[in-house]
Design a protein that fits this description.
Shape: globular
Order of helices and strands: HHHHHHHHHHHHHHH
């Protein structure tokens, strides 16, 4: 592909000054803040865990021991596999997938209403109401969810007062608070990509389908959802990746048996002081999430370029 005409068209639209500024800032963002740190993390993951004086010495060679540890566990252990870490890893991915599906189910109807509504003033008010809660810090919102779902929280107190339950329900141990907090934390990242796509959908297509006698579910299945597929893919990708890599919400809202894989990574980096092993675990989580996202995009026939539209 000849990129010269692309750059000529780009600078013709944006000008030399603005176009150069955008290219420089994007390059700095991608190279310095994304690519180089990931390369450094990848290099760390193949290094031995050595004291600082021995780093760069003859013992500082490449190894696969940290990746083997995730699969096989510590050398000499009785178990054939690292049951604990692999179980947490699988549970984290399944939970992130579950949160993504829940957010999609909740956000699609709202995004469709916002995108196809003719009331401009009402739409702006609804969008503003969605954004205002996110002016509050994520940590504070997580603690608010812990208060709401606690044993003496709003939900339990309400159900006790109404006589619906006789004893408080432990929503924290049941991970209800964790899933609700994660879903709420990233719900805007699901709504707005879908809303932006559906807003550009020609209403005449929906009216034509109605005139042909199509029920509402068939209109969405055959007209709206195929058109909104890029927005749905973008929203699901962001929610899944961020949920799988979340740390604050699992730390605050997670129960005693709901260890998140990112918490294990955090422990290796900080409590354990084993940066190479933490880097290896982080690389595995990143690569696995990317493979899952790309596989889902291929399954539903969505191109990467469609998400960027």
């Amino acid at each position: 592909m000849n990129i010269v005409p692309i750059f000529k068209n780009y600078f013709a639209k944006n000008g030399i000054g603005l176009g150069s500024f955008i290219l420089v800032t994007v390059t700095i963002w991608v190279v310095l803040l994304i690519i180089l740190p990931q390369i450094s993390m990848l290099d760390f993951s193949f290094r031995h865990h050595l004291p600082p004086p021995e780093m760069g010495g003859p013992k500082d060679t490449y190894t696969l021991e940290h990746y083997k540890y995730l699969v096989l566990g510590a050398p000499g252990s009785d178990a054939s596999y690292n049951v604990v870490d692999l179980g947490v890893f699988a549970r984290t991915l399944l939970a992130a997938f579950f949160v993504t599906i829940i957010d999609l189910i909740l956000c699609y109807p709202l995004a469709y209403y916002l995108g196809q509504s003719k009331g401009g003033g009402l739409v702006r008010v609804l969008v503003l109401l969605l954004i205002i809660p996110y002016w509050i810090n994520e940590i504070l919102r997580a603690f608010a969810f812990r208060i709401i779902f606690g044993d003496s929280g709003v939900i339990n107190e309400f159900m006790l007062a109404m006589g619906l339950i006789s004893d408080p329900i432990d929503f924290i141990r049941a991970n209800v608070a964790l899933y609700a907090g994660l879903g709420y934390a990233y719900i805007l990242l699901m709504i707005f990509p879908i809303y932006n796509v559906i807003e550009s959908l020609d209403r005449n297509q929906i009216e034509a389908a109605r005139d042909m006698g199509a029920p509402w579910w068939r209109i969405h299945w055959r007209v709206v959802i195929p058109y909104a597929k890029p927005g749905i893919s973008s929203g699901c990708t962001m929610v899944f990746m961020l949920s799988a890599g979340a740390l604050a919400a699992p730390q605050i809202l997670g129960g005693p048996s709901s260890l998140w894989f990112t918490q294990i990574i955090y422990q290796w980096f900080n409590t354990g002081g084993n940066w190479p092993r933490g880097a290896a675990f982080a690389v595995i989580l990143l690569v696995t999430c990317i493979v899952i996202v790309l596989s889902m995009m291929r399954l539903f026939k969505v191109r990467i370029g469609d998400i960027g539209k």
